Input
Amino acid sequence: MGIAYRRLIDLLRKLPKQTDELNGEIIGPEGPEGPERSAALRQCMEKLKGSHRQLLVLAYEHELPGREIAEIMDIPVGTVKSALHTAKGLVKKCLERLAKKCLERLEVMTR
Output
């Protein structure tokens, strides 16, 4: 995802900046933690099945260690680790697909 994401950011930087009509601030491409990335992450999280989504929320939003997640979900710690790995891979693939689609649209716009 790294190359596609960086190409996307480069293309976003080339687009003309827009002005926020309410307060006159310049709106440009956001950094890696900007609203677009947050929206993409939310979209990918919503596509996950419940258990994978719950694991990621417990691990990253609540910052719980694997041992506590295992107790909460009543599964072995090894299963937590394996399922977290799988869930992160699913989110990564989803983000890659979204970045590729966005990149394709931006390339058409900048031609």
About this structure: The beta strands are 18-19, 26-27.
